[in-house]
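Sequence design from tokenized structure. All designs in this work follow the same two-part layout: the structure record, then the generated sequence. An example of the structure record is given first.
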């Protein structure tokens, strides 16, 4: 007998038929003698619908009320799934995050899980129940409902699996595993049998929304066996997220690039002609950090004349307008000059792979491939296992496909080998 935490995403519970199919799947595991905790998302589109409703009432809703609102999506699916299971003769009970004791901090809309009480879940499981838990939500110390950030049901699943010491956390979704890149953009993308935590963390943080980054962090930190699987097909192995390997021999055999992530969810801002003196970077970025806006890439030009420089950085698209405002109203007056440029039609495309650690020339090949497609590179950033470039958004898909082919990731290439 094993204990599984099974998380089903929005599309997987997107209709009455889909919810019934999930109940059948859960029943099969239970019939085989396993214990199951199920975590569900809201029905697909529901969280967006709720956010949109809020914006029709108030364009700056307080985060507390927003969380109160968007957490309701998951309350619908837990009860419907419990009913579907009961209808099949499977004893099941549904719980909200608060009811099941998922304690978080008070950072509304991006709360972090601090503690999970497992006693009640454990005793339900021991009584033969399937426990159905609302994903994406928790409760802070004062009893306020919080949410974990978009895609946060993945994190609920992994955190519960860690707390319950489950044998495996299974993330069921609308694709049958983690691919070399988003299969919706590149039809030649290939499913990976395994991927390391380190690579999955990079892919998730660079835009692959198949797993929320915090879910991967939890899995790494608490050694939770984590697998991504299709909720639509039975029988596949999906993709197992495995511990990082330090073994030199293993890493020599690793492909240079494991995956390509991309996102059009950032915007670029440039301050031209800023004084090139110590402290400028912090005077530019300080007020932005004070507003809780996260900065991603940063590039500062070497000023030919030595007196003035250009300073460019990226922020999330949702923070673009506010960042512009801070630069205009606070930073430029403080610096006593500078001309502001902004562009929110950009995309970031990133190559990820632990194999690139020991190989030079990946960046130059990446730049050549993009140049051959006439794609202009606007910014570059690198770390040990990734290279990211910022390009125009209109070239994003073309760039991803060209890089996927050039780095030997296309399905046909692999099959021929
Ligand atoms: P869910 O609603 O089940 O949480 P998501 O939409 O959050 O599902 O995540 C699944 C989607 O992630 C897929 O439909 C796919 O388009 C996208 N995706 C992006 N990058 C990848 C990748 N490398 N491998 C698989 N899917 C990916
Ligand atoms: N329903 C939430 C969202 O759409 C959480 C999730 O699906 O993981 O972001
Ligand atoms: Mg998701």
């Amino acid at each position: 007998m094993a204990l599984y935490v099974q998380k089903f995403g929005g599309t997987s519970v997107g209709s009455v038929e889909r919810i019934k199919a999930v109940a059948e799947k859960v029943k099969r595991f239970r019939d085989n003698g396993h214990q199951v905790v199920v975590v569900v998302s809201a029905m697909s589109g529901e969280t967006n619908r709720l956010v949109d409703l809020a914006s029709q009432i108030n364009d700056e809703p307080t985060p507390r009320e927003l969380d109160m609102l968007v957490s309701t999506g998951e309350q619908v699916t837990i009860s419907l799934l419990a009913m579907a299971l009961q209808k099949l003769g499977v004893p099941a009970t549904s719980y909200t995050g608060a009811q099941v004791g998922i304690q978080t901090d008070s950072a509304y809309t991006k709360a972090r899980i601090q503690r999970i009480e497992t006693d009640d879940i454990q005793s339900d499981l021991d009584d033969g129940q399937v426990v159905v838990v609302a994903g994406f939500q928790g409760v802070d110390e004062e009893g306020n409902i919080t949410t974990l950030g978009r895609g946060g049901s993945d994190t609920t699943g992994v955190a519960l699996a860690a707390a319950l010491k489950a044998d495996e956390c299974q993330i069921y979704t609308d694709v049958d595993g983690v691919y070399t890149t988003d299969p919706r953009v590149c039809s030649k993308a290939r499913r990976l049998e395994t991927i390391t935590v380190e690579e999955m963390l990079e892919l998730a943080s660079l835009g692959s929304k198949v797993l929320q980054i915090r879910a991967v962090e939890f899995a790494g930190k608490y050694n939770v066996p984590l697998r991504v699987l299709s909720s639509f097909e039975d029988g596949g192995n999906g993709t197992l997220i495995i511990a990082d390997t330090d073994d030199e021999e293993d890493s020599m055999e690793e492909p240079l690039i494991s995956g390509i992530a991309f996102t059009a969810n950032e915007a670029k801002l440039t301050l031209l002609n800023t004084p090139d003196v110590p402290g400028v970077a912090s005077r530019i970025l300080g007020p932005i950090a004070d507003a809780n806006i996260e900065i991603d890439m940063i590039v500062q030009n070497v000023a030919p004349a030595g007196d003035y420089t250009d300073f460019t950085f990226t922020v999330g698209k949702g923070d673009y307008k506010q960042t512009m405002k801070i630069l205009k109203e606070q930073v430029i007056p403080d610096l006593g000059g500078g001309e502001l440029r902004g562009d929110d039609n950009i995309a970031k495309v990133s190559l990820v792979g632990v194999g690139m650690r020991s190989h030079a020339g990946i960046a130059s090949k990446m730049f050549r491939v993009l140049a051959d497609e006439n794609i202009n590179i606007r910014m570059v950033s690198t770390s040990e296992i990734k290279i990211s470039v910022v390009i125009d958004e209109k070239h994003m898909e073309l760039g991803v496909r060209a890089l996927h082919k050039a780095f030997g990731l296309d399905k046909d290439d692999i099959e021929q080998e």
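The first strand starts at residue 3 and ends at 8. We note this feature because it recurs in several other targets discussed in the main text.
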